[in-house]
Design brief:
Blueprint: H1 4-10, H2 31-44, H3 60-72, H4 75-89, E1 98-107, E2 115-116, E3 124-133, E4 138-145, H5 154-160, E5 177-180, H6 187-195, E6 199-202, H7 214-227, H8 231-234, E7 235-236, H9 241-268
Parallel strand pairs: 1-5, 1-7, 5-6
Antiparallel strand pairs: 1-3, 2-3, 3-4
Helix pairs in contact: 2-3, 3-9, 4-9
């Protein structure tokens, strides 16, 4: 499930866990096998406790712990940044514009960063907030309660865009323009975005449809569809917000990896 090419990018990022000499216990299960188990849960949405033992991925609790530990060690964020750098080096990142939006998901077990969703009959939910570059490649993602306004994550997401290397000169971390829908229509935030050196192109409330901004904003909806293609992200099953955020970060990295892999396949032809 984890290709050799992807594993070669992940393995150097994993923290080394030394084996205790006084009480060594059982041998630690191979990291690549456990990673396959994490991917299996992310792709299928299966509960941790139902992870099939016959697959050789270890127990669901082992996979859960590694996901938690690797997220805390910043593995998924560094993987995402490294893949963005590779895409940038291949001229696959469109820095002329970025697009931002939010999407609701149900949170059936509650927990931190949940709230009454205004678009789902006040059921408990969370929100995925996403900013992409002009082609829809995810630059940053965040998690909030379902009752949080989209605009509250505008500046945090801009600040969360990593410094992307891959080319000579200073790393790139700011798009030239930012496209957003009516949910971000606040002049206060337009001023803040301009102060970052970014031109805000935000649809105003009360304006008629057909502004033309949708020509550029559709890419973020496409990326949300790719994120929610991972069954574990369609509904928030985790009570702990950091575990759900770990899945979000990993999914963004996988989307970048797929874009990079498709690029290399096109070069072969």
């Amino acid at each position: 499930m984890v290709s050799d090419e992807l594993w070669s990018r992940i393995e150097p990022l994993l923290p080394v866990v030394p084996r205790r000499a006084d009480h060594p216990g059982r041998n630690r299960l191979d990291d690549r096998k456990v990673l396959c188990g994490i991917f299996f849960v992310l792709y299928t949405g299966i509960p941790w406790e139902f992870l099939p033992q016959e697959l050789g991925f270890g127990s669901g609790m082992t996979a859960w712990r590694r996901l938690r530990d690797w997220h805390q060690a910043g593995v998924w964020q560094r993987l995402h940044e490294n893949l963005l750098a590779e895409l940038n080096a291949a001229d696959e990142l469109d820095w002329s514009r970025a697009v931002i939006d939010g999407s609701h998901v149900r949170a059936l077990k509650g927990g931190p960063k949940t709230g009454a969703s205004p678009v789902d009959h006040a059921r408990t939910g969370s929100k995925h907030h996403l900013i992409t570059e002009g082609h829809g490649i995810p630059l940053a993602v965040s998690l909030t309660g379902g009752n949080r306004n989209d605009v509250t994550q505008l500046m945090p997401l801009i600040d969360q865009i990593p410094s992307v290397r891959g080319k000579r000169g200073r790393p790139r971390f700011r798009p030239e323009k930012l496209y957003a829908d009516r949910g971000y229509d606040h002049d206060k935030y337009r001023v803040l975005v301009r102060a970052k050196g970014i031109t805000p192109l935000i649809v105003r409330r009360g304006s008629e449809h057909g502004s033309g901004l949708g020509v550029h904003r559709w890419v973020v909806e496409q990326t949300f569809a790719l994120l929610h293609w991972f069954r574990r992200l369609r509904i928030r099953w985790e009570i702990r917000d950091d575990i759900h955020e770990a899945f979000l970060s990993l999914a963004c990295a996988i989307i970048c990896w797929r874009r990079l892999r498709n690029l290399s396949l096109s070069w072969e032809f």
